Amino acid sequence: MDLEQARKELIALQDQMSAYDHAMGLLSYDGETTAPAGTAANRGHSMGILSEIMYKLSTGKETVELLEFLDAHKEELNQKEQRMVYLLLKDIRFMQKIPMDEYVAYQKFVVECEDVWHNAKVNNDFASYRPYLEKMVDYCVRFAHYAAPDKDPYDYWLNEYEPGINKETCEAFFSTLRERLVPLIHKVAQKPQVSDSCIKGDFDDARQEALAYWLMDLIGLDRDHVGLSTTEHPFTTSLGSHLDERITTHYYPEDLSYSMFSVVHEGGHALYDTGSDDNLAYTVLDGGVSMGIHESQSRFYENILGRSKGFAKFVFPKLQELFPEEMKPYTWEDFYKAINRVQPSLVRTEADEVTYTLHVMIRFELEKRLFAGELKVADLPREWNRLYKEYLGIDVPDDKRGVLQDSHWSFGAFGYFPSYALGSAYGAQFLAKMKETVDVDAALAKGDFSAINAWNKEHIWHYGSLLTPAEILQNTLGAPFDPAYYLDYLEAKCKDVYGL
Amino acid sequence: MDLEQARKELIALQDQMSAYDHAMGLLSYDGETTAPAGTAANRGHSMGILSEIMYKLSTGKETVELLEFLDAHKEELNQKEQRMVYLLLKDIRFMQKIPMDEYVAYQKFVVECEDVWHNAKVNNDFASYRPYLEKMVDYCVRFAHYAAPDKDPYDYWLNEYEPGINKETCEAFFSTLRERLVPLIHKVAQKPQVSDSCIKGDFDDARQEALAYWLMDLIGLDRDHVGLSTTEHPFTTSLGSHLDERITTHYYPEDLSYSMFSVVHEGGHALYDTGSDDNLAYTVLDGGVSMGIHESQSRFYENILGRSKGFAKFVFPKLQELFPEEMKPYTWEDFYKAINRVQPSLVRTEADEVTYTLHVMIRFELEKRLFAGELKVADLPREWNRLYKEYLGIDVPDDKRGVLQDSHWSFGAFGYFPSYALGSAYGAQFLAKMKETVDVDAALAKGDFSAINAWNKEHIWHYGSLLTPAEILQNTLGAPFDPAYYLDYLEAKCKDVYGL
Predict the structure, then answer these.
(1) Is A223 close to B37, i.e. CB distance below 8 A?
(2) Residues of B designated catalytic
(3) Interface confidence (ipTM) of the complex
């Protein structure tokens, strides 16, 4: 094989893969946003066939020979090519270990399982979802065993979502957080509660949608390349390349803040993805590198910026303009307090910043025990409810707002949740670093995200997946990751809002 | 090769093709409905790659050998298999004649061309579209030459959309129509015009959408398998199989009837497609057989049923419920007259039933001359405007409402328009036949489409593409196609509305 030819084939291979990713990503996005209720089987049929073809493309003899040839010549490759070969071989080595029949069956099963979860949530019917979730846990344990027979299966998946982490590092991280968060929540509970009445009411979809688009523009999303749709459980997806990104939201008439902050959260994901260098498009280096770094961006925009004093002050006049009657009794300070109210609650995606991590810890505990065989799926609702009582002191009234609330398990994303907490903590340390050169408060006060976005683009976004998460943290922070930044940040926020 | 094995491979081949059709159909549907404005290039990239793969799959050595083997054993195949082999070989023999590079480049070009058309229409800017349209005409002439070197290229495309027709049969058909339609339009013009004020006003999207869903239910669409989205130029598409059908509409605040009748029109297409026998799914026999038969169904629901007296009377109370203020001054008779007002107009999709065919004739004339090299694309706007003056007696104020109004040419659909007129005429003859066994007027008066739909399903829908258009017409009508039914129908309608 000739090296120049092999380099061209490396690009052509990724071109093909990106087209299949586009097609399959769009099938899934359509299912979550637009498709009629009875079309899941049809989608599963197509998804099964396309993923079989994708499997053959990615793990076929020609591809493996090409990548092993390039890997053998890696000193002659540039940094991008080296990383492409590394990432592609990593996936192939995973896929090679999974029997094709199982892989294809799994792809079809995911479509079905997401659909069953969706209906189970709507109907508050865990029983109908149980056999699917059991099968999903089995798949994920089995696939982890195939991929890394000597590794603990849960460690395997944790590392997939955030390279470098495992149960032990997560336990240490969560225990550091717990030490200061539990007393912080206690202190807040002893103070008079702040009111959130200004974000509660009856807010129509049309004006919430207008607000969503305004927020997209405000935080600097390019709407020529980032679309907004509605769905049950908001998510973000890249279709084919970072040049076509979709975010989603859900409008609840009774709560103005849900859609607002989901748009800013998903918008953070979309800023990260669409910030990839354009020359990474149609390669495996396009878009964000890991879930932890991804969540560091989404939760940075949602919370660190989105729930800041400066942002609240800047956004409030827009709320007054869109909802003049509803906002009449309130000031921007009321809005600021409302969106920073600390209150143990049922639903992770609606949780405040301080109690949020406890929701993640509960999922981490349950996943760990499910994967160790110490907990059965049948007992999940009971254990879920018990841990919510223990960690957050609240009773779960139904599975809809309990164990059925998140979509993640329905598409096999076990080991994903800890990256939400890690990402939040990375974000606080990024903020401290950013403030050395960017006047973040002044930028928020003006509603001008350009300097903030430029800093993130320079240090994080433009690399796409070229650097590892550890390299991004090291290059950007110039110091080890330290959760103390996050805890300091949360304590300062509570001091400000509750006058601790 | 073993015949049983070959039969299985025939099914597996169509399974794969349906997955690619699903993916590419969804890419295109997404582009027309949901995708952000700047994503056409990304979509073109994926479409180019997928269509290259689809090309190789459909025309590759293995496929050709399989189908030729089956064709050689066709006496041993059942009717369905025979028809599958015939249709697949027909496509292969077409594709084999197109150089692959050109085919792939064309697929990418279509995406771009649709995008340019869309922007040109929005900006009333024919000049930006002109070079693309020139290229598109060249492609279509060239492809017709490749496919049928001895055939007139426009005849080739006419026959593609409605097997069995050519320039000569179209000219005869249009001339028969012209003989009675021109005097009919003249007679109507001498009568006092009926008012359409009850469908004009300021109707908000939300209530128009509620009406659209109500109409979908009314005509018997299964919303578990048929979705509704909004777009610039309404269309219907099947995704993967008839089990996932999408219709689209456009809400104009100033005109209530536009969306109503586009929903009923596209709904007719969707009824036809989703009425295929379920065992045709994932094969080339799934969904409607030709554009002429398709339009016979869509225009049957839109006009013959949708603009009937019975339907107007049944629907009007729903309009009163949704728009109580707007409908206060009117009766159902006003509504009936408004939706049957005959008035030469600019836009085909908004034209009344009587003048509609003249819009089609203009396109037929222009396409014929473009393909014969007698008309240049650069001169299209001028010729368009001249013919609108000559045929319809009206001045075209801008290209947006003139030559840029239809999307068809932007995706290469030359020769498609005559099937709208043919379909309308088929529909009138179907109605006469249906009335022999179904009390259509009573069904409309009750808003109960079950007997009507059952008749259409039995005679037309359930076959999918198993029968040819000629076979459907012959089997159903038991007589040759005769445009006199259509002319009788239109004259009766004008007599009723204008008291001729």
Answers:
(1) yes
(2) 266
(3) 0.89
